[in-house]
Predict the structure.
Amino acid sequence: MNTEIAGRKRDWERMNKRINILAQKQIDILKLLNRYTTGKLLKCFVISIILTMSFACKNDMKDITAFGSMLDTLPDQSARDIEFTYSDSARIQIKLTSPFMNSYKGNDPYMEFPEGFKVVFYDTLMNITTRITANYGINYQNRKIMEARSDVVVINYITDEKLNTEELIWDQRKEIIFSNKFVKITSEDGVLYGDGLESDQTFSKRRIINPSGEILIEDDENSQKPPDD
């Protein structure tokens, strides 16, 4: 009998400990909700999930912990149809647009563009000189580094050239663009391929790494012909 009572006491202590841990987890998750969610409907929805998980038959603490980790990866701010401009002396030099953006704070804050983006560069007369588009982008605000991935296209309207690659990195401090991925450059003179590229941010001065391809060379009408035998 004493052994049975002692066993029940241990079970009761374990159950109380589990309930206390679960309650603390709920408090932590609710704190995360206050940080990351602004809509009442979304908060009510997430709270209902927490309660369902809390009173489930399994009471699996791993599920609660995983749910808290998921909330910790939510963005601090989200916005649709965004537009950023960089101006110097009241003149727009760069414009970035995107259909959707997630913004994350922390030691290394960044903006993510999961639905793609477009960056346009202007000259002093507000003519478009260069355009960059990609299916995905991420901009590290403190480091001034922007990465473009998936079907990256750069068009230089001055030289009438187009660059295609799968990844491109824009160093805004150094005002350079580079890639360590396969690149393809198409122009009126032909097509060039390379294992990477380094360029200024307007794509007017560039260097292709390990270039190959075909270039059209026009005959010089004024060149001297060899004499007939």
Observations:
- Residues 2-36 form the longest helix (35 residues).
- The longest strand covers residues 91-104.
